[in-house]
Design a protein that fits this description.
alpha/beta; Rossmann fold; 7-stranded parallel β-sheet; binds NADPH dihydro-nicotinamide-adenine-dinucleotide phosphate
């Protein structure tokens, strides 16, 4: 196998949660460009049809399956639907996430639970349900979208629940990687820095000082810049890599 062949995802089936917009949309496009059939796992599959059409135009099979990642029964049904339609699942990207900026003393109980539910419980439900299928197959790859916020405390905005949730994602990644390595399933995390999406208002003047001027590269990232990293983690190119967190933040967390 030549080195570039190791990055091919031909014949694979990849599922990306929250793939209708933002980072998830860029990641699923990259996986499709690498040859994988793709499934968007989204809350509104009808609304995701334009993205399904774009992906189909790349020459792969694409579909949208409905599930709220905080609802384990919906996630279980989504696994069954993917297996029925595609026969197997090779890659799961746990991308769906939520963030609330609020000083710790002002965070409400509902806000805390909401962030933990999407970012930690959602990753857990999908990893367990799709992991069960992958273990039965004897092969699979899970990529959890964590964050540099697992390693640093962002400023000037405070986001204690988000930071804690992403630290949980990174360590859940290591825990599952250790447990499932002998069963043929690799589990890694991708930890982005500031990336221009609805979640991160990177152009807001109040954030420029800390988000941009403090950054080694003096810029934010674009979702498309994460694509090659997810293809690396999804493919045979990373066959001997598991339990790792790949930070893609333009060096932000060096300081
Ligand atoms: P967006 O806010 O643009 O997108 C969030 C996505 O998550 C949407 O597709 C949304 O679906 C989906 N989602 C939220 N809650 C649920 C749920 N309960 N069930 C199913 N899907 C859900 O965010 P980004 O694209 O920026 O973020 C994607 C991931 O990257 C997140 O995990 C985030 O924490 C992480 N990240 C982002 C960074 C950034 O700077 N942007 C930096 C580091 C990490 P819907 O359209 O239905 O709302």
């Amino acid at each position: 196998m030549s080195v570039l062949d190791a990055f091919s995802l031909n014949g694979q089936v990849s599922v990306v949660t929250g793939a209708n917009r933002g980072i998830g949309r860029a990641l699923i496009t990259a996986l499709a460009e690498a040859g994988s059939d793709v499934v968007l796992l989204v809350r509104d599959p009808d609304g995701a049809q334009p993205v399904v059409a774009e992906l189909t135009d790349l020459g792969v099979r694409a579909a949208a399956v409905g599930a709220d990642v905080t609802q384990p029964a919906q996630v279980e049904a989504a696994v069954a639907s993917v297996v029925e339609q595609f026969g197997h699942v090779d890659v799961l990207v746990n991308n769906a996430g939520a963030c609330i900026h609020r000083p710790a003393l002002e965070v409400t109980e509902d806000e805390w639970r909401y962030v933990m539910d999407v970012n930690v419980n959602g990753v857990w439900h999908c990893a367990q349900a799709f992991g069960r299928q992958m273990v039965a197959q004897g092969s699979g790859v899970i990529i959890n979208v964590g964050s540099m916020s697992a390693n640093i405390v962002n400023r000037p905005q405070w986001q204690p629940g988000y930071n804690a949730s992403k630290a949980a994602v990174h360590h859940l990644t290591r825990s599952l990687a250790a447990e499932w390595a002998p069963l043929g399933v690799r589990v890694n995390a991708l930890a982005p820095g500031y990336i221009k999406t609805e979640m991160s208002p990177v152009d807001a003047p109040e954030f420029r000082r800390h988000w941009i001027e403090d950054a080694p590269m003096q810029r934010y990232g674009m979702p498309v810049e994460l694509g090659p990293s997810v293809v690396y983690l999804a493919s045979k190119a990373s066959a001997f890599v598991t339990g790792e967190v790949l930070v893609v933040d333009g060096g932000y967390s060096l300081f």
